[in-house]
Amino acid sequence: MLHVTALVALLVLVVFVENSLVAPPVAAAETARAATTASTEKVNINTADAKALTSLSGVSRSLAEKIVKYRDEHGAFKKPEDLRRVEGVGNGLWEKNRERISVK
Q1: Over the Cα atoms of the chain, what is R_g?
Q2: Is residue 101 helix, strand or coil?
Q3: CA 40, CA 27: separation in Å to the nearest integer?
Q4: In the chain, how many domains are there?
Q5: What would the pLDDT profile of 15-42 be if each residue is shown by its tens digit?
Q6: 65 Cβ partners below 8 Å, 6+ apart?
């Protein structure tokens, strides 16, 4: 009988822990909406800091810092395609982000 009681207590504990780890539906929806918004907003590559540049798909912190350094050394980008001049920005990264990249 002791084993059954311990088993029931363990089962209750597992259910409680699983339910507390799952985000409420509203919070999950808000997180998804925020991620979608962040992944569709334009990024001005002439004014964005390294953190903002990392919002582009495939741009790591290291690559974002290279982009900022390139901009500091060569001046503002004249057109979005100029981003491809930065070492590490390849055709794939450009294609994934071309709709989100702007220069002003």
Answers
A1: 23
A2: strand
A3: 20
A4: 2
A5: 666 666 555 555 555 544 444 445 689 9
A6: 50
C-alpha count within 13 angstroms, C-beta hemisphere, residue 11: 6
Domain identity same for 97 and 49: yes
Pair (69, 86) in one structural domain: yes
Same-domain status, 9 and 33: yes
Quote the pLDDT of residue 34.
47
The answer to whether the CB of 98 falls within 8 A of the CB of 59 is: no
Are 94 and 61 found together in one domain? yes
Q: What is the 3-state secondary structure (H, E, C) of 34-77?
A: HHHHHCCCCEECCCCCHHHHCCCCCCCHHHHHHHHHHHHHHCCC
Mark whether 58 and 83 lie in a shared domain.
yes
Domain range enclosing 68? 42-102
